[in-house]
Request: fold
Amino acid sequence: MDRPAGAMTPGQWMGRAVAILILAVFVLFFVVPLIWLVLAPTKTDRQLLLEAPFAFGDWETLAAKWTSLVTFQKGLIWTWIGNSAFYCVAALCITLIISIPAGYAMALTEFRGRKALLAATLIVMLVPSTALVLPIFLELSAVRLIGNPLAAILPFSFFPFGVYLTYIYFSTAVSRDLLDAARMDGANEFQVFWKIAMPLATPVIALVGFFNFTGNWNNYFLPYVTLPGRKAPIQVGLAELLSNVPAFNPTNAASTTISLSALALATLLAIAPVLIVFLFAQRYLVSGMTAGGTKE
Amino acid sequence: MGAAFVSLYTLFLLAFGVLPALYAIYLAFTTKGAFVGFDNFAKVFKDYRFWPAVEHVGIFLIVWLVMLVLFVVLLALLVHSIGIRWLSNSTRFIYYIPGALAGASSVMLWLFVLDPTVSPVAFMLKAFGFESLVSVVQVDRLPFVLAVIAFWTGAGGWIVVMYGALNNIPKEVLEAAKVDGAGPIRTAWSIQIPLMRKWIAYMVIMSFAGGTQLFVEPRVLSQASRGVVGQDYSLNQLAFLYAFKQSDFNGSAAISLMLLVVALALSVYFVFKGGLFERA
Reply:
């Protein structure tokens, strides 16, 4: 490999071919399951077993699967999706209301305990949220909140990573001088935050909102233990559906069952909101995550 | 005045960060409100399900972290070496998409992928001699299965982060290496990888802490594999069984506390020694 630059030697040519091959294999690894998932609901279970995995079935089958899924236990799937939407949107609002001012204050104001609060935020942010699920469950059951929507909404709203993002954003993008100028003009602290800092905060609000919403939508463990039964969000519901699929549970004798392809459709429905947000926010997010590196 | 802006957040930090941890400590060291020292821990250690669960999680972590470091670094380097901008961007984008499917939905999807009767890669599974989902998810193979699922959902995000780290390496440094006659492998090994070290450490520590928490993947697999994957496969599953099947909140808190201490220790170490948050 150690040859001077210039025309490609056979070694370099081989190297490049291997690189392209590896990249392509991983592209397949990451997308093949998704493509399969998108096509699966258009096929009957028989077709799933017998036909080529990437063949398109037909629209009638898709319609039939849709009907069987949405009529399953009188539209239970909509209850689950509705629950998810309710918990995640409510948590999103509370998260923004508590995180944006907190990050702002830690970045641009002085108060006692600022350093300690910042250190605590970093530490809790790096602890995986699942580590606190059972302790939070034990706490919530001590105050009898299990089964109450608040048992998901409140823990979902505690989002130290969002506070950290806001803190980083305000400490790099907004200067203290700007705020001091407003103070000189007689604005009080609340007006400085609302009239000067908030209008500049749109990008970080979007970023915090994105990570909070997608993380909560996909959260399984916490609502699984704190919100049982019909209060469950879609991720928990999806796993519940599994026990109604005869292919995975041959002993299941329930009268209404879910077919494999209807389960695939349910999975697709469950991820749809996050997937849509991902696709639209992608360009923006990748540039946001690698910001600072792309100054070319 | 700043204190007013952080008051709500501080309240949440106490209620859902500090207080649950303190309550778990209280529960772990008591039984029916009476202080019992380490009795709850001793009980958990003597549980025949505890050490196998530790072993399961341990093997999974080794397999997953090795896979993560090797392939994330390799793929980040390769994606970074793509000269055509749109191609490099869209490759990263494709690697990142599965991140949308964290949680139960990714396991659900992989149930299909790992079931040789419907899998899009059935030919590969059959080439290895697997005829059914149950034969794929045998316990000795499970660490690999779980690692592949976790890699599929999580690797893309890390590749994006590593790519950002690679972009931070000044162009002049790489040019100089080239002038000195270093090929791409040499450059990667002696310049790029050492400069990514901090981020690799970050990834390993975060993933280690997250990996010890294994819960949703073995739970859903357990449901789908007719019990081949046990309900007590991972430590969090065991803590869950203590709380929900045995109504033993003290035992459950003891397990949770051990996991929390591991995560907390890693996090504290990283915040104060890792150097990624020097700004703070």
In short: Residues 73-242 of chain A form a domain with the MetI-like fold fold (CATH 1.10.3720.10). Chain A touches chain B through 108 residues (CB under 8 Å).
